[in-house]
Amino acid sequence: MDLHSLVALFDSTLHPDPAVRKTAEQQLQQLEGHEGFLGVLLQMISSADLPLGTKQAASIYFKNRVRRSWHASQRALEQYPPISDGDRTATKANILAAIYASSQAIKLQLTECLGIILKFDFPEQWPQFTVHLKELLHAQDAQRVYTGLLALLELIKRYRYTSTNRDVINEIAKELFPQVQKIADQAVASDDDLAMRMAWLSFKSYLNAIQSGLPLPLQEPANLVAWGTSFIKMIEKP
User: Fold this and answer.
1) In whole angstroms, what is the distance from residue 98 CA to residue 111 CA?
2) Nearest 5 degrees, angle CA 151-CA 153-CA 156?
3) Does the chain have fewer CB atoms within 10 Å around its N or its C terminus?
4) Long-range CB contact pairs, 93-97, < 8 A, 24+
5) What does the alpha-carbon distance between residue 122 and residue 34 come to, in Å, rounded to a whole number?
């Protein structure tokens, strides 16, 4: 799969001539089932050298491809080619880096894709995801931490309304939430826009985690006090 050819096709989908756009869209439909297609899309989306419009077009196509084909119905398989094992592996290996490298609007689109993948692949087919998540949450780069928080919220949503799989949510709370609480506490103390988004994501993850019951690690007195203090600081913030 050639990166430059794919970039040219996505540029053509933005062409003012409807005939040029239609031809480009048809060619993309022919290519989407080819091995490496999703991996190249993530390369495009992550590139610092491409125009934002081209990357946005690629991210929309990527989202639609994941949404309709990651866990496809028989009807969908009759209309669209399946996603290969190689493309699935490449997507999971690169999607977090693509979220980190993207603009806010594209981050949100890719995060939605991540949620779909987690719904069907975690933990059995993506057990190492929480390892990557922990690395992001402990990073020194605020944007990497922010990426980790976006990803964490998508993971927590996977379990928010279920009373089963509590072992999984308990493990997530044990391994990740102490750091998330620290992030929330530091973010609340700042007036920076990114810090406020990080605080919101931290609190949102906590609230989603307790929808079906307070995970065992969060029932510990020290954790109850720490999270309660962070919420009070946020409420009292001018």
Assistant:
1) 10
2) 115
3) C
4) 94/39, 94/42, 94/43, 94/46, 95/42, 96/132, 96/136, 96/147, 96/151, 97/42, 97/46
5) 25
